[in-house]
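In the previous chapter we treated chains in isolation. Here, by contrast, the input contains two separate entities that must be folded as one system, with a combined length of 234 residues.
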Amino acid sequence: GENVEQHPSTLSVQEGDSAVIKCTYSDSASNYFPWYKQELGKGPQLIIDIRSNVGEKKDQRIAVTLNKTAKHFSLHITETQPEDSAVYFCAATVNAGGTSYGKLTFGQGTILTVHP
Amino acid sequence: NAGVTQTPKFQVLKTGQSMTLQCAQDMNHEYMSWYRQDPGMGLRLIHYSVGAGITDQGEVPNGYNVSRSTTEDFPLRLLSAAPSQTSVYFCASRLKGRPLLSSGNTIYFGEGSWLTVV
C-alpha cells in the first residue's frame, strides 16, 4: 500500500519568513495530494490540493509543488503569520474518476510555529 | 449548516468497557469514514462506508465495529476498550462520484472525539 513520509516534524519560523514542508510517497499510481491544516482542538481542514496532471498550484500565500518522477510534493507558505501556527498534514491517494473510495494515506504531521 | 458532527467530544473509559462514538452529517454524503490520530503517526483509517448498508475495513480496524443504517449516521463502536485505543478520533465524509479536488469535491472532518482508556 501507499506510504507517505513527511518532514520536518517540527518547524519554527519568524513572522514574515517562508516555511516549506516536504512529503514523499511510494505508490506511483497516487494522483491526488491534499494538504490539511489542523488547529488546536479542531479537525483537519483542507488548505490546498493538487492532482498529478499539474506540477504547481498557488492560492495566495500558499503553494504546492509536485514532482511525479521523484514522488515528492511540498507545501510552501510565504510571508508567514502567527495564525499560520498549526499542525499540517500531507496525504496521498489514488482517486481516479471519483468512483472509487480513494483511501487517503496521511503523513506524520508537521507542527509549525510562527513567532511574532 | 452543521457539517460533520461528532459526539462526545471527550470520554474517559475503563479497560473493558464499551462505548459508541457518534457521527452524523447533514450534507447527504455517501462516503463516510473514521480515523484515529496518534502523536507522530498522522491519521490512520479505521473503517469506511461507501453508502448505507456497506462498510469496509481500513488500515487499523481491530477492536472497532461500524454500521451504516442511514446515509446520515456512521457510529463507531468499541466493544471492549483497551488502553491502546486512547486516541483522538475523527469522522469524515464526502460526496461519491466526483473526483477529489477542492473545486469540486472535498473531505469534511468533524471536530474530533478525545478518548482516554484507563
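The mean pLDDT of chain A is 93. The interface with chain B takes residues 1, 4, 6, 9, 32, 34, 36, 41-46, 48-49, 51, 89, 93, 95-99, 101-104, 106-109 of chain A (CB under 8 Å). Compare these points with the single-chain example from earlier in the chapter.
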